[in-house]
Write a structure and sequence with these properties.
Helix content is about 50%, strand content about 15%. By secondary structure, the chain is of the alpha/beta class. A six-stranded mixed β-sheet has the order 2-1-3-4-5-6, sandwiched between helices.
Length: about 230
């Protein structure tokens, strides 16, 4: 993955980092190169990848503390309620749990709640370096088309977006197709104007939309024809 991200063939990936996160993680991202990195206060999650993927990162001590003070379930609720797909990363070694007040059974119940009740994947990592790699690999899997077709495109601002009362429903419909997230769905609607135009567009027209690759187009057309 580092070779892919460093290659000048690919346009940069935008990574927004919550300003309360350690600088060490930002440094790990910068080592990979070919990224546009911002630090700002995020309302949901700790890391936002190209407006298509959210990550809430927890070290084991912070995870346990956030359970006690109630932050964890509030943060999980916000993450689960976001229209942007997300996950929770639990960073640290298993032995670190021994220094907490939680029994193994209690911790297992909490992790199951995240996965089942909130429908949020919980991924485990051992250290900062592994956390960065897992976040990027997760984004790559979620993108569907892979980094080979990934491009960074700033989201356009449209007056029509504010006036369309059915925009959210239209985005949800397009999100049902493989490889199309909320951001790509919005770009398609901005390009074609309505759902009918999107679903009847030819492959060349669809490929002209920033961020839409051949794999996504082929799967969309295949589903519509069946």
């Amino acid at each position: 993955m580092p070779n892919l991200l460093k290659s000048s063939y690919y346009l940069p990936l935008q990574v927004t980092i919550d300003d309360r996160e350690p600088v060490a993680l930002e440094e790990e991202f910068r080592k990979l190169g070919n990224m546009i990195i911002h630090r700002q206060r995020l309302a949901v999650g700790d890391y936002l990848f190209d407006r298509d993927f959210l990550v809430e990162r927890k070290t084991i001590p912070d995870f346990c503390l956030s359970v006690k003070d109630g932050r964890l379930f509030k943060q999980a609720g916000k993450l689960a309620g976001s229209r942007i797909p997300g996950c929770i990363i639990l960073e640290g070694k298993t032995k670190d749990f021994k220094n907490t007040d939680f029994s193994p059974q209690a911790l297992q119940g909490i992790l199951l709640s995240m996965s089942l009740a909130f429908r949020l994947p919980v991924l485990r990592t051992k250290n900062i370096c592994e956390t960065v790699q897992v976040m990027l690999q997760s984004f790559k899997q979620l993108a569907g088309d892979g980094l080979g077709e990934h491009r960074f495109y700033p989201r356009p601002i449209s007056a029509k977006k504010r006036k369309d009362p059915f925009l959210v429903q239209k985005i949800h419909i397009l999100e049902g197709f493989p490889g199309i997230g909320a951001d790509k769905a919005e770009r398609l609607l901005m390009k074609f104007g309505n759902l009918q135009a999107v679903l009847t567009a030819c492959d060349k027209e669809l490929l002209s939309v920033p961020g839409i690759g051949e794999k996504t187009v082929n799967r969309l057309i295949e589903i519509l024809r069946k």
